[in-house]
Amino acid sequence: SFFAQLKTTTVRKLLPESWGFLCPVHTPDGSPCGLLNHLAHKCKIMTKAVDVSAVPRLAAELGVVETSSAATDESVVVMLDGKVLGWCSPKEAKRLADTIRYWKVQGKNNVPVELEIGYVPQSNSGSYPGVYMSSTPSRMVRPVKYLPTDQDDFVGPHEQVYMSIAVTEPEIISGKTTHVELHPTNMLSILANMTPFSDFNQSPRNMYQCQMGKQTMGTPGTAIRYRTDNKTYRIQTGQTPVVRAPLHNAYGFDNFPNGANAVVAVISYTGYDMDD
C-alpha cells in the first residue's frame, strides 16, 4: 500500500531483468498497476540449493587467484553465493563465465544447470564488474536455448541483463548472440497466453482481458458435489473455444470449460458504426 501512494512511477516500470520472469501484460489497471505482477509461465522458482562444491576448484583452474590489484582494469572479483572465490583479469573473467556456462549446459564437471553465472562486464557506470554466481534457493530461473550446443540453459534475472538473448531466430547476430528464446510467448503468464491473436490487440485490451478472463463463471472446483457451500456458481453448458491459443490444450483448459462462444454481429446501416 505504501508504493501505491507514491507519486513516482519508477517502482511500476517493467525492468530488463524482469523479462521472461514477470508477465508484462498480466497486471491490474489502476492503483496496483505494475505493483501486483504475475509470473511468466516458464519461470521457475528454485526451492532447494544445488551442489556447487566443484565450482571453486574449477574457478582456480581457470585462472582465479587469491590476490588482487587495486585497479579494476587489472583484476575483477569472482564470487559464489556472496563469498569471494578470488580475482582475475577482465579478459579471464569473460572466459571463466563462458567456460563454466558451457560445462553447465553440457552437464560436465558437476556444474549444476540451475547455477546463475552473472558476468558483469566493465563499464563507466552501473554494477561493479566481476563474475557473480548464485546457487541458493528462492531464485527465479527460466529456460532458453544455448546456441553453441543447441541445448536448454537456465538463466537468472541478474545475468540476463548482460547477455545477448534473441527473441526469434532471425534476430540472432552471429558472434554476439549466445541464446535464443524457446518461444516468443514465454514472456507471458498462463492467463495472458490464453488470449488468441493477442499481438493484434491494442495493449491495454490484453491487460483488461487478463482481469476478465479469470472472472468468468467457469468451474470453481472438482469436488462441487461433495462441498457444503451455501451458494456457489458454476457454468452448466460450457463450450470449448472455436479459436484457441496453442497453450490452451497444453494446460488442459478444456477439462473445465470457462465460458461460451459469443456471436457478435455489427452492421453499419445508417453510417453509424460500433464506436457510436
Automatic annotation (TrEMBL):
Residues 192-276 form the DNA-directed RNA polymerase subunit 2 hybrid-binding domain. Its EC number is 2.7.7.6. Keywords: DNA-directed RNA polymerase, Nucleotidyltransferase, Transcription, Transferase. Gene3D superfamilies: 2.40.50.150, 3.90.1070.20, DNA-directed RNA polymerase, subunit 2, domain 6. The keyword Transferase applies. Residues 85-142 form the DNA-directed RNA polymerase I subunit RPA2 domain. This is DNA-directed RNA polymerase.
